[in-house]
Design goal:
10 helices; 260 residues; mainly alpha; flat; 2 domains; MetI-like fold
């Protein structure tokens, strides 16, 4: 079954597939697919970048939603904790956050395992560490977007839910959340584009994303400008495709609004 999926992905690969860009226009060049060039490696880097960004969004949004709820809680401790969280991870450079999580998780696990007399070396998966680091940063910014959206919803919406006999959770799910998504979507769209660019940081911990793959090709071939220019084009292409897709999502989210 996995062979079928691999064959299907290979056929639909927009870079090195039968009708891929590299296959059609990059043959007999440095970006040719196969052993003749670096096309396959760069295509794999694009797949890793997209997978990392897509995997990060739901985790970051979930954490950001919880932080936004804590920030408007009546409990002073929760509000303080939410404020500290957002201040730290919005203030730290993304690269430092990545280093702290990547190396900190290894040190923490090593210390825990030492209690069980395990002396072996622990290495954290670079993809997992990158996803956690980017999710933490994404959540700190998305929590502010969601908090602003929460505050834009009139308090009467909550009272209307209570008047209908809905519980607090059902009011949030059925009345507040649909409005929250529509209000927060433009801000979250910008955060997605930022996240797409921030995935480039994971190259420093060895993950084979676009930047790392093109960087290796640049060092081996001594054609740095060419390969980094290819990386720029790939990020721009992902941003343009994302913009069209997110524009469609925004129109879908606003489908219930009354036309003026």
């Amino acid at each position: 079954m996995s062979g079928i999926f691999s064959a299907l992905f290979g056929a639909l690969d927009p870079l090195c597939g039968p009708i891929g860009i590299f296959s059609l226009f990059g043959s007999n060049s440095l970006i040719a697919c196969g052993d003749a060039g670096w096309g396959d490696e760069i295509a794999f880097g694009v797949l890793v970048t997209i997978t990392l960004a897509v995997a990060t969004v739901p985790v970051g949004l979930f954490i950001g939603f919880l932080i936004a709820l804590a920030a408007q809680s009546k409990d002073k401790t929760l509000r303080l904790a939410a404020g500290i969280y957002t201040t730290i991870f919005r203030g730290l450079p993304e690269l430092l956050t990545l280093f702290i999580i990547y190396y900190g998780m290894q040190i923490g696990l090593q210390a825990v395992l030492a209690w069980f007399n395990y002396e072996g070396r622990v290495e954290i998966n670079a993809f997992l560490a990158g996803m956690i680091a980017l999710a933490v940063v994404f959540s700190s910014y998305s929590s502010e977007v969601l908090l602003s959206a929460f505050r834009a919803i009139p308090h009467g919406q909550y009272e209307a839910g209570e008047a209908l006999g809905l519980s607090r959770w059902r009011t949030l799910r059925l009345i507040v959340l649909p409005q929250l998504i529509r209000i927060a979507l433009p801000g979250l769209t910008n955060l997605w584009l930022i996240l797409l660019k921030d995935t480039s940081y994971v190259s420093v911990i060895g993950l084979a994303d676009i930047v790392r793959q093109t960087g290796i090709a640049a060092r081996v071939s001594k054609e740095a400008f060419f390969f980094y220019f290819i990386a720029c084009l790939l990020y721009l292409a992902l941003a343009v495709i994302s913009s069209f897709g997110l524009r469609y999502v925004e129109r879908w989210a606003r489908r219930s609004e009354v036309r003026r």
